[in-house]
Design goal:
Elements lengths: L1 E2 L7 H6 L8 E4 L2 E4 L5 H20 L4 E5 L2 E5 L2 E4 L2 E5 H6 L6 E2 L5 E5 L5 H14 L4 E6 L4 E8 L2 E8 L16 H6 L4
Parallel strand pairs: 5-8, 9-10
Antiparallel strand pairs: 1-3, 2-3, 4-7, 5-6, 7-9, 10-11, 11-12
Length: about 190
């Protein structure tokens, strides 16, 4: 991850920023941070989870949507790009014709760890998502072959780590039956 020379951006500047490069940036304390392109493994994991979540949403007829690489405002001049988030249709309606950066907490966020995002996903985003009250945050770590499910309790995340053939227990998707192995096997070609 590289830091762009652009500094002192407001959140509003960020929403309208386009350097014409097609690259994706996060806004951290007024600085643009360039996000490295994901790996194929990363895309396959996100696709598997997106498909599983959409199937449950449809089966249960929930007024929810999933989005990949949507922004989440996490401070005055801070915005993160989530790998996958689940939001209400009402939240999506509010952004129908503007940049897809949610200013209210998504129901759930999933981040897939890569070598350059370990500290960001485990440390920074964990505290930032808790501060804006994201109820459920998954850290999917193919490097360690584990998935951490963090549930917000009294302003802090309670963490449960799943490995191998363990079925993941989700508060948001309480009826979903998916194992860690299935998620990581989805990234095998």
């Amino acid at each position: 991850m590289l830091t762009s020379p652009v500094t002192n951006l407001t959140f509003e500047d960020y929403l309208n920023y386009d350097d014409g490069s097609g690259f994706h940036y996060e806004l951290v304390d007024g600085r643009l941070e360039l996000m490295n392109p994901p790996t194929i493994q990363h895309f396959l994991i996100v696709d598997f989870l997106d498909t599983a979540f959409k199937a449950d949403i449809k089966r249960l007829d929930l007024p929810w949507l999933t989005f990949r690489e949507a922004g989440v405002r996490i401070g005055r001049n801070k915005s993160r790009l989530s790998d996958l988030c689940v939001v209400t249709q009402e939240q999506a309606r509010e952004l129908i014709n503007v940049s897809a950066v949610f200013e209210t907490p998504p129901l759930m966020i999933v981040e897939v760890v890569s070598p350059d995002s370990i500290k960001r996903d485990y440390r920074y985003k964990r505290s930032e998502y808790a501060a804006v009250e994201v109820p459920e945050y998954w850290i999917v770590d193919p490097l360690e072959e584990k998935i951490s499910v963090l549930l917000l309790e009294e302003g802090l995340y309670e963490e449960t780590v799943y490995t191998g053939n363990q079925k993941i227990i989700s508060r948001t998707f309480g009826e979903m039956a998916v194992t860690v192995a299935e998620i990581f096997n989805a990234s095998n070609l």
